[in-house]
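Blackboard transcription, Thursday session:
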Amino acid sequence: MKYLLSLNIVFILLLTACDPVKKSQLSPSGKGSFKIPEWSSPFLKGFEKALFHTSLDVAGKHLSGISIIKRTSDTSFHFTFANEIGMTYLDMEVFRKTYKADYIFEALNRKSFLKVLWSDFSMMLFSSSERKPVRMYLDNESEESVYFFLRQSMYTWINTKEMNLTRLVGWSNYFDAVMINFSEYDAGFPSEIKISNPRIRMVLTFSLLGH
Amino acid sequence: MRTFKIFVPVMVLCFVGTLLQAQTKPLSSADAEDVRKTISESAKTTNSIEAGFTQTKELSVIREKIISAGVFYFKKEKLLRWEYKEPFPYLIIFNSNKIYIKDDDKENHISLQSNKVFREVNNILIGAVQGTLLSDTKNFQCSIADLHNQYQATMVPLNARIKETLSEIVLYFNKSDYTIDKLVMREVSGDYTRIEFSGKKINQSIPDEIFVIP
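(Written on the board underneath:)
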């Protein structure tokens, strides 16, 4: 029984320690029933394709160039990232539950890296308010509403004035957290997107060139 | 009527096929060797090139194009400056064994010794501009065809490292001055990048300072 109790304490501590969101930044809000705003990834409603100035920093390496994200069906996107001279770094199809790598530059061709990248992309591209959040908070700094979705292990920041998604924070396991920031909205689409994944020391930034 | 329906498309196909053949005429090995020598001789007298360029990256799977443009400078022996202006400012300087990249506020220094991808890119670009790529029989199998006002040199990589990325490089040399008009790099994935040069200024003075790596 003692062991079970210790195990539980360790597990709770582990959960708390690995939570990627600082709880001090959030105030509980909307106790009981609360109204859930309709939101979805900017890549879902009416999105066809977008061209980005892109940089990828991973494990101390810096790559830059141009990328294109194109919606290829209701359930898939195509992502291509090439350097300025035109040589392809990454060419992959992203589905909600899997991915297909068409071409990967040798230095990036690591299964573990691609899996994390796909998981982050899946969150960025496919997230929406289809499931009910279990908790609502208020961000003390930005005063944005924050919703926590237990089943997706994801926090969502919504600017309720503009009804824009500004941040997603989630994790696929307790050691793998990702933060995706959407900013500089213009006509309903963010001009700047930044994906940070500390597990693999990755920062991927997208600056919109056209869509 | 049915025969007519079949006959017309077949005739159109034959006509288009003949037209394409007439446009691209493969040279015999003796003629190809002459062209190779002429391009090489001409390159010896080309000390500098300044040109505008338009780069088109064609993405085969999603049928999309990414278009960039800027100014290109070359100075003998191995100085290259690619100054992209569209769709965003970006600068690459190849100077001897070093590469300098400026992307927004980020500056990056790369050694050609340590980065094999940039080393290959540098060799291809310098070799294409100087025409020496045509004589690189160790790394490429080359065939030359005669177009209306250009020579088309198709380079198939033999080197395993280049073959991992590129399936073919096609160079188009202008018949009037034997300088490069266009460069097409076909990737293994089926994507290709086409770089077209315009407004070429040959052997005009280009200050060394623009190739200096800060």
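Lecturer's comment: The mean pLDDT of chain B is 86.
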